[in-house]
Design a protein that fits this description.
globular
């Protein structure tokens, strides 16, 4: 997309800066957590499941994802990681001049405050510990782009904040407890979503190395990353046996659809190897993540 097709600080510019396609990664963990909580709430007497809390959890996840995208856009450009000459991934708002630096600063402040406002009522459902969870989410939203991603810890944060935290906390808000099934499901979810970071960093391995951004891909190399990308899908599906053990057989079976798509994307990555063409694999991986979330959710709720 050319710079002159987007007016600076226009609604279109902000839509592009928000990266709506990434919202599937925010939605999937909450979907799985809600599905498990709803199904298990049927074992309790009375109306236990709260739809208000469910909506708040989803909104908080969406706003925090947009906030993280703004922070990433702003600081990666400020650090020089993003520039027009070397960037291989989709265009970024600050880099392209679609959004001014000052406007992005205000947007980061606004979305951070908005996320806190939306998340605060969850204290009524999950207790005061939700304040600590919210604080961790906000702090690590900033630490990821500014420090931790440069240290190769991005994949660990994905596992925690796109797996363990959203799935387990969403479940806890509803039923005030947790279970082995929920923990394993949250880890599997985090592993699936990490595939998105892997393909992103696989594409950017050369420019990241030059910018001093020592991602996991930079550390282990391209060939090992391809093997890891394939393995995360296989391992996540195998971890789904926990659903079978707990009576949700189809939540284990249906993600085979996801695994087939994941393998096809892996083969495409292996063929393309490097360059902007890998953005196709990035889009496919985002699609695959949604398919995983949808199949697990449907398997838990209806089959």
């Amino acid at each position: 997309m050319e710079q002159n097709t987007v007016k600076k600080n226009s609604p279109k510019a902000w839509l592009l800066a928000a990266r709506p396609k990434t919202l599937t990664g925010a939605a999937v963990p909450v979907m799985i957590g809600l599905a498990l909580a709803y199904k298990d709430s049927q074992n309790y007497a009375g109306e236990v499941f709260s739809w208000t809390a469910a909506i708040l959890c989803m909104l908080f996840a969406f706003i925090m994802q947009i906030d993280a995208n703004f922070v990433n856009d702003f600081f990666d450009y400020a650090k020089g990681t993003d520039n027009r000459e070397t960037r291989l991934g989709p265009e970024r708002a600050c880099m392209q001049g679609w959004v001014s630096f000052s406007a992005m600063k205000h947007a980061i402040a606004l979305t951070t405050v908005l996320a806190c406002i939306v998340g605060l009522p969850l204290v009524l459902y999950g207790g005061l510990e939700m304040l600590l969870v919210g604080l961790f989410c906000v702090v690590f939203c900033f630490l990821y782009t500014t420090h931790l991603s440069y240290m190769g810890l991005g994949d660990v944060l994905v596992l925690v904040f796109f797996g363990l935290v959203p799935v387990s906390v969403t479940y806890y808000v509803q039923l005030h407890t947790c279970s082995a099934e929920v923990i394993v499901a949250s880890l599997a979810c985090g592993i699936v979503i990490d595939a998105l970071l892997l393909v992103n960093n696989f594409r950017d391995r050369d420019t990241d190395r030059a910018a001093g951004k020592n991602t996991l891909v930079v550390h282990i190399g391209a060939k090992a990353t391809l093997i890891l990308y394939l393995c995360v899908g296989i391992v996540a599906c195998l971890m789904g046996i926990v659903f079978w053990v707990n009576g949700h057989v189809m939540a284990f079976v249906l993600p085979v659809v996801y695994l087939l798509l994941h393998i096809l994307t892996y083969l495409k990555m292996k063929k393309i190897w490097k360059g902007r063409e890998l953005n196709v694999c990035l889009g496919e991986t985002a699609r695959n993540i949604f398919v995983y979330g949808l199949t697990v959710t449907l398997g838990i709720l209806f089959l």
